[in-house]
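Assess the record.
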Amino acid sequence: MDAVELSTVVDVPREEAFEFLLDFTNHERYSEYVSDVTRRGDGSVGTRFDITLQWWKLSYTLTPAVTGLDRPNRIDWRIPKDVHARGYWGLEPADERPDAADAAADGGRSTGEDGPATRIRLRIEFDRQRSRLGRLRLPPMVSTDWVLRRIKPLAAREAQQVFERAVADLEGERRPVDLEFHVRPSTI
């Protein structure tokens, strides 16, 4: 099983971040590669999301499902079809504020003085051996390896952009976001 795990700190309480993450329909606003998100369910365990990804001449719909909720600490999910992935959004109190250096520079003011900051952690585990993404219908003369070589460099940049846009919605203004990679497979 391969895994990717990354985190960042946001200047909002855990409950607010939890509710925000539970509404996966926000994701289409954060990525140019997500063309549509449809939620089927009320956000509780069993809720499914149809997330349509588009890149180049390819289109694919992922269908993650919420498999567990521990409010306001964790949202577990899985994608059983094709990708065979599972993971979670973890939320924990943060020791530091995301803008601590900026706060010192501007006299100690912080955007989140009213409440605690939260570390948001995203963990994704996937099984390359069981993945059926290689069965995508590709244009003639285009190999899966060619597509993967083009997608890999986009992954880190896209994660950064998605997190920055989401954090801007959570905190009310755009700022640089420090992503900390805890686990990263050698292929990414």
Strands lie at 2-10, 34-40, 48-55, 58-62, 65-70, 74-79, 85-93, 118-126, 180-183. The chain has one domain: 2-28+66-183.
